[in-house]
Design goal:
Elements lengths: L2 E3 L5 E3 L3 E2 L6 H14 L3 E3 L7 H10 L8 E6 L6 H14 L7 E4 L6 H13 L6 E4 L3 H10 L6 E5 L7 H8 L4 E5 L13 H10 L3 H11 L3 E2 L6 H8 L8 H8 L14 H9 L4
Parallel strand pairs: 3-4, 4-5, 5-6, 6-7, 7-8, 8-9, 9-10
Antiparallel strand pairs: 1-2
Length: 282
């Protein structure tokens, strides 16, 4: 497994397994166990996913030494602010059955995320978290936080895939040594992702699928990816992307697929913000 070095010297697998939208405890536990058996060592969860406990059980049952795993979780909006975030971090550690997290992110740039980040900095200094960062932070909010925090974000996890490549965002983050991490590397199948003729044509040259081609594109750009699937054969397929390299011509062709806009929602749209703030309150 290839790794990347974060801005604090911590190394992180460039490819991980995401558990978004796997709320069923038994199913999530099974998926994480399968992923670890396939070879994944980085597992990405979040407080709002409702499956931290399942991830923790699977990590424990896998038999893989804790130091060989890289566990990520995220603080949700409702836990925003120093006091709530501090308590939620300890709760996440309990649910994940671990003494420390490898990466902790602010999930969304809403509520008192400055207070949240201070709690995360404190957890980092206390040894509860090895690296901290953010998720879904647009350049303006990212720069504001990065300029006034004490520990600069190691990662910004954002929507990143061939149709929304976020090159300008990456350029801003690189000034702070912050790594881009892709959620939704397959765009959740939108825009005809899995049948895209460019991805399909390039993949055929290497005996790879459109999904493998798209993952390879991200990896060659130094972007961390966390594809999600509940099918073991897909886990194996997604993992099998380190035995080939795309040519500069291929990289250029895929780069031209960029539409420069989200396929999901805009974090600057008031209705989208309200939706996210109220998500999980039902």
């Amino acid at each position: 497994m290839e790794k990347v070095m974060l801005n604090n010297g911590v190394t992180m697998p460039v490819l991980g397994f995401g558990v978004f939208q796997i709320p069923d405890a038994k199913e999530c536990e099974r998926c994480v166990l399968d992923a670890i058996e396939v070879g994944y060592r980085s597992i990405d969860t979040a407080q709002i996913y409702g499956n931290e406990e399942a991830v923790g059980r699977a990590a424990e049952k896998s038999g893989v030494p804790r130091e060989e795993l890289f566990l990520t979780t995220k603080v949700w909006i409702s836990n925003g602010g120093y006091e709530k975030a501090k308590a939620s971090i300890d709760e996440s550690l309990r649910r994940l059955r671990t003494d420390y997290l490898d990466l902790l992110l602010i999930h969304q740039p809403f509520n008192d995320y400055y207070g949240t980040y201070r709690a995360m900095e404190e957890a980092n200094r206390a040894g509860k978290v090895r690296a901290i960062g953010v998720s879904n932070f647009y350049p303006d909010r990212f720069v504001d936080l990065a300029e006034f925090c004490e520990i600069r974000p190691a990662v910004n996890q954002v929507e990143t895939h061939v149709f929304h490549q976020q090159e300008k965002v990456r350029e801003v983050m690189e000034k702070y040594g912050t790594r881009m991490e892709s959620w939704g590397p397959f765009a959740e199948g939108r825009n005809g992702f899995f049948s895209n003729p460019v991805l399909k044509g390039i993949g055929e040259k290497y005996g790879k699928t459109p999904a493998q081609t798209a993952l390879r594109f991200l990896i060659q750009r130094g972007i961390i990816a966390i594809p999600k699937t509940t099918h073991r054969e897909r886990m194996e397929e997604n993992f099998n992307v380190f035995d080939f390299a795309l040519s500069q011509e291929d990289m250029g062709a895929i780069a031209r697929l960029d539409r420069g806009e989200s396929l999901f929602l805009c974090h600057r749209d008031p209705e989208s913000v309200l939706y996210l703030i109220n998500y999980g309150k039902q």
